[in-house]
Amino acid sequence: MAITLRKFKDEESEYKKMHEWCSKKHVNEWFEQRVLSFDEIRNKYKNKIGNQDMFIIQYNNRDIGFVQIYEYKPKIYEFDLFIGEEELLSKGLGTKIEVFIINKIYSDYDADSIIARPFKRNIRSVKCSLKAGFNIIDEYDGTDTIGNPETILVMENKRTN
Q1: Residue 26 lies in a domain
Q2: Crossing angle for the helix pair 93-108 and 123-131, to the nearest 10 degrees
Q3: Which structural domain range is residue 11 located in?
Q4: Are 97 and 3 spatial neighbours (Cβ–Cβ below 8 Å)?
Q5: Position 59 in a domain
Q6: What is the CATH number of the domain that holds 71?
Q7: In the chain, how many domains are there?
Q8: Residue-wise pLDDT tens digits, 52-64
Q9: Backbone CA torsion sign across 34, 51, 125, 76
């Protein structure tokens, strides 16, 4: 099993792939809370290029998902990810991807810790992050991307060396 990341490219084919994935219920339920048009996807991710590191997640040389990594506070990083291919869900791959990304952040960025902020009701994401070495340190009342109330967990993974 080979998990790799490749830089997200400012190309129409990348935006089409993102639109396809983000149109799937298992992604947009947690990532956007609605289906975005192709133009909305292109504009959103085009505007992020240069502001955060964005990667396509590959599994055995196949594009399967997306991750964005950004500095949350000095030396504290955060990432958002999704697996876009339904047939790869609930197989333990998400935890392996999170561990891979955690190791990448600690090796490539000057991070002291990493946080994740899933919706509390996103049980799949919460369990995945716990298995990958995160601990729940807080929760707060917030909103999703379209303004609906959500309880958001704050999870942390601290550098151990």
Answers
A1: yes
A2: 60
A3: 3-114
A4: yes
A5: yes
A6: 3.40.630.30
A7: 1
A8: 799 999 999 999 9
A9: negative
